[in-house]
Amino acid sequence: MIQYEVRPTQELPRTADLVIIGGGIIGAATAFFAARAGLRAVVIEQRPALATLTTPAATGAFRAQFDNAEEMALVREGIALYTHFAEVTELAGYDIDIRQQGYLWIATTETTAQRQREQVRRQRAWGLADVELLSGAEAHARFPYLAPEIVQARYRAGDGWLDPRKLAMGYAAASHATFVTETAVTGFALVGGRISAVLTTRGVIATDRAVIAAGPFSGVVARMADVELALSLVRRQRVILPDVPDVPPDAPMTIDEETGAHWRPALRGAHLLWTAPGVPPGPPLEDVPPSEAFALGLLDPASDHAVARITPFWRTVWRRNTAHWFSRAGQYTYTPDHRPYLGPTAVEGLFVNCGYSGHGIMASAGGSRLVVETITGQLAPAANPFRLDRPLIERELDIL
Ligand SMILES: Cc1cc2nc3c(=O)[nH]c(=O)nc-3n(C[C@H](O)[C@H](O)[C@H](O)COP(=O)(O)OP(=O)(O)OC[C@H]3O[C@@H](n4cnc5c(N)ncnc54)[C@H](O)[C@@H]3O)c2cc1C
After folding, report:
1. Are residues 216 and 353 in the same domain?
2. Does residue 399 lie within any of the structural domains?
3. Which of 10, 53, 231, 294 gets mutated to test ligand 1 (max ligand atoms within 8 A of its CB)?
4. How far apart (Å, rounded) are the C-alpha atoms in residues 232 and 333?
């Protein structure tokens, strides 16, 4: 693989066209789209390296199969970039390990099968023509490792996954922005109600525009400018089994639509995930410890959300009991309607790019392009479905 190194500095520039707060995938993507708009961006990251908080916890999956047209459009824009990343970014040979092995949603009850049919009908009406509805028999014929109880599946071959850190560092390299690490943003200077500088632990950087892309810390940073963001932070986890020969390496992301448990091939094994209900929100964390009970809940066939429910080979893996696993955790940053906050705040010159829940990798391109267009004035506030002052309708927990 061709290397494109990003060399962060600890020297704070005195001025910037745009200061981006946070060097995760969203900060890096914002820098990339800012550069395309001709803005000289400086990204401030408090940790010793970029993309080291929530971004590496992700499994890096992307899907166009959404339940609303706006997020679907955001992600489809991203998929178009990710599938041609090296060409679009002019990083010749840069590889983000993209795999389009599909997303397969499994129904084992008629109620869920009915919901799937309605969902696919809506998706087709929004222009997503390539989602397939498979009968139980068709699903088995294509994916013989599925459990016999499956009544129906929906499948889109163009969905898949990529490496989130490689994508983040690709955005960073292609942005040619200045990345300042080991430097925390501590406040803002305002003149006449407008941003005039960003204050950091290494001094002051003069700018009239700043974007908060601080992941789970976005609410804390916004409060420094007296902006309140309704956000709640919930621990989410990923179990990594590096070596399980039973996992078909060409399998899609396989989701039990009754329980939300899902897995996908990774390394010589798999990643396992589940959006557990009832996890209490908490404060933003620098270290998010995983729990062993979470891994056991996915692996033990006796559990009500075991991955063995829809793919019985996991029962063999459990019985053999020789597979190693480890887990990673991070925090989902939820808005009340689970859609991101993108665009200007009430403070002139201060923008947000945050609140992506479990979609910040897949929506990083669409969301960051949109935010930059609100900065340059190309996108009018009323045309932005993700603006902060939209009506916020509380949403039930999504299974992914
Ligand atoms: C288990 C799990 C699985 C996931 N799977 C997927 C998936 O498959 N697909 C998908 O699209 N999404 C997934 N996500 C969601 C995705 O990981 C996030 O939406 C995304 O990483 C958010 O990126 P970010 O840059 O906003 O946040 P982060 O990566 O957390 O970056 C924010 C950065 O801001 C910095 N910062 C904070 N405060 C300050 C300050 N005051 N000064 C300077 N720097 C500061 C932090 O140090 C941090 O580096 C998953 C998340 C989890 C937890």
Report:
1. yes
2. no
3. 53
4. 6
